[in-house]
Amino acid sequence: MKSIKYLLFFLFIVSFASYAQQFRFKTTALTVLEKDAKGNWGKWSKPEATALFVTLDYDKNKIVIYSREIQHYTIVEYLEKEVTKTDEINSYLCKNQLGTSVKLSFFTRVDLGNKPQLYVYFKDFVFCYDIVEEVTK
Fold it and tell me: What are phi and psi of 6, to 5 degrees?
């Protein structure tokens, strides 16, 4: 009887440890915003259809965008969630594989029917991906 209690306790603990806080998204479109030679922001590019995968892994503190060149971002700081009348924003200060500081933000556009987007902010350009959450079964 005692061994059964220990076994159940062990399985209970293992079930929590194996539960990964990982989210997977698929991109549907990409737009880009760039600075010109004078340092002024231009206009957003026209949306281009995409079909990339993105993972947000809280356990490993990383975000990965599976583009032609895989983009690895290590989360350095979790920023406080921002909530406005039109948006809910979860942001992360990160470093990419080259050591460049990058901010990534997951937006939920409340005013656009809860449309999810991922923004990747570099110094001279910004990527904006329209995303949908992949539900794993």
Answer: -65, -40
In tens, the pLDDT along 27-63 reads 999 999 999 989 999 999 999 999 999 999 999 999 9
The residue among 110, 109, 103, 114 whose CA lies nearest residue 78 is: 103
Q: Residue 6, Cβ neighbours under 10 Å: how many? A: 9
8 A C-beta contact, residue 44 and residue 15: no
Residues near 94 by Cβ (< 8 Å), separated by ≥ 6?
63, 73, 74, 75, 76, 101, 102, 103, 104
| Max CA separation in the chain (angstroms) | 76
What number of CA atoms fall less than 13 Å from residue 115's CA on the CB side? Answer: 13
pTM flag (> 0.85): no
Q: DSSP class of residue 80?
A: P
